[in-house]
Amino acid sequence: MIPGQGTTTGENREPTLAKTTDVAIIGGGAAGCAVAYYLAQSGVNSTIIEREGIGNQASGNAAGGLNPLTGIGIPGPLGSFAWECYQLHSGLYEGLKYETGIDYQHRTVAKIELALEESEVGSLKETAKRVNASDGFAANWLEPDEVAKLEPRITPAILGGMYDHGNAAVDSKKLTEAFATAARSTIHEGNVTGLEGSGDTIDRVILEDDEIFCGQVVMAMGPWSRKAESWLGDYIPVDPLKGEILRLELVGERIQYDISGGGASIYPKLDGLNWCGTTEDWKGFDRGLSEDVAKEIRRRLGRIFPLLAESKLAKHTACLRPVTPDWLPVLGRAPGWENVYMATGAGKKGILLAPGIGKSVADLITTGESGLSIQGYAPDRFATQLD
User: Fold this and answer.
1) What is the pTM (predicted TM-score) of this model?
2) Is residue 74 within 8 Å of 68, Cβ to Cβ?
3) Using one digit for the tens of pLDDT, what is the confidence trace for 24-34?
4) Cα–Cα distance between 67 and 82 in angstroms, integer?
5) Crossing angle, helix 30-41 and helix 172-183, to 10 degrees?
6) Contacts with 374 (C-beta within 8 Å, 6 or more apart), sequence order
7) What does the DSSP assignment read for 305-325?
């Protein structure tokens, strides 16, 4: 959602005929909906407040890859949590699909990561060793002729590639919708303008034309999280990283593997479309579609899969990912507040991390602790208080 500016005051109004909820969740992306789902598992009702519809921002346009073994902070401070989230995804699918009737297409995928430069060969061979050491994963180095046997349309101008099997993928928008449906939360469409309460407790979420009384508040506002700085007086350094994707139609046999290399990524979907990108641009809250970016994506594709680079465009999308200075999520109670929790900052791993974000924050609300590896993600690591 995109909240407006607002203030926190000590004004106290009685909830006469007002909307009330145990937990008000501001933001209807994958993180907020996952919090609602896990709260519901503990018998806690929630209201999701969202301006632009469930999963209509990054959560609805993300490629949906669930790779727990590579990325910023992996191996490193994100590694253990990413693996836990991957395992949560595996355990969720059949139950969520049965309960909601929403098939969000959780599936195991194989990937070919191509080397176009000599410097990439050694790195990919080392990555293959690490992938092989992970339970349920397998990886090996392929020479160019071996790559061609798997996908002959890949350019021959490569030095080889790493094949790995074990990653998973989902339809990110349908996953978000499944979390919200299973949570049976009230979905309130509206623009949040502030929070109100007294002392260190918030008891009302203020909207442009309404208010919701609540016992707890979860800030799951993604790249718009800084809007809450003026409401809470806390420093929340989450900024938007823009990404654009082209969904391309390829004539002929469907691509069977995720493919990356040369700055390009290809994610073949079950409907036959190939999601290609994805870019990284610090352009504030600009969500416009750029023809220059589209040309750049096609140029990169031309280096690894020339036929796809010339394919028909089915859809061009742009979204904003919530990124923190250390590229780690912000999870836990907001500094100085008894009943306000943060669930944001998942960066480029938002779909992978969503169930872990949801479960950990729900656990903190209901029991005061979480068994997941969220040490180091607390909001108070950005301790600066705003005047």
Assistant:
1) 0.93
2) yes
3) 999 999 999 99
4) 8
5) 30
6) 81, 329, 331, 332, 356, 360
7) -HHHHTSEEEEEEEEEEEE-T
